[in-house]
Specification:
This protein is α+β, with helices and mostly antiparallel strands. It is built from 5 helices and 13 strands. Strands 8-9-13-12 form a 4-stranded mixed beta sheet. It has a 3-stranded mixed beta sheet with strand order 3-7-6. Strands 1-2 form a two-stranded antiparallel ribbon. It starts with a helix and ends with a helix.
């Protein structure tokens, strides 16, 4: 009790691991530094800003600050900003700010979930283009266009790659992954219906599900 009155603290060891006299440490021992707490926040971006990178203004923990978001971020990605959290205690370092990214849905493009430098899109084509082959113009996120060659007999769901037409990050420029989707019209004119029926007759006994049951049973 007498030692406590003069600022002493009971301690089984001295600095360096050696026992103090009578099992007590020195007077006036200092509290240990503690790192500050992390601050959690979020940012919602347009896809174009996520692809190109942008600066956003965030308000978190009573503070407002501008934060640079790098190019090519993905939906759900977390960005850690060192030292932007709460202040440390007893001389400890500041905590971090952790920003969770959300990307608004774009009507045409999306960021590839595997590689943030790659973009994805669906490309509608007609039955004739898919069956006979065609060269189709593809819009790009930067406002330009590119052409893609569809081979005859290309099925719906085929993924084609336009190299270098994706997002540009600090590490690389990604690709645009184009998924071919054969467009099926919801309404057909009488002439179109007759043409399809004539086409079906011309195909003879061709059955696209001929081996489906057999393969399903294996």
């Amino acid at each position: 009790d007498l030692l406590r009155m003069f600022g002493g603290t009971p301690s089984p060891t001295r600095s360096g691991g050696r026992p103090g006299p009578f099992g007590f440490g020195g007077f006036g021992s200092q509290p240990q530094p503690q790192k500050g707490s992390d601050v959690l926040t979020s940012a919602t971006l347009d896809l174009r800003d996520a692809v190109a990178g942008t600066t956003v203004e965030l308000t978190a923990d009573g503070r407002t600050m501008k934060v640079r978001i790098p190019a090519g971020v993905r939906d759900g990605q977390k960005i850690r900003l060192r030292g932007k959290g709460r202040a440390g205690l007893n001389g400890g370092e500041n905590g971090d700010m952790v920003v969770t990214i959300s990307i608004k849905k774009h009507p045409v493009y999306s960021v590839d979930p595997v590689d943030g430098a790659n973009l994805r899109m669906d490309l509608p084509v007609t039955l004739r283009e898919a069956a006979l082959g065609a060269t189709v113009e593809v819009p790009l996120l930067n406002g330009g266009t590119s052409k893609i060659k569809i081979k005859p007999g290309t099925p719906s769901g085929t993924v084609m790659r336009l190299r270098g037409k994706g997002a540009t990050t600090r590490k690389k420029t990604g690709d645009l992954l184009v998924t071919i989707q054969v467009a099926v019209p919801k309404k057909l004119s009488k002439a179109a219906k007759e043409a399809l029926e004539a086409f079906d007759e011309a195909m003879g006994d061709t059955d696209p599900r001929a081996t489906l049951m057999e393969e399903a049973a294996t």
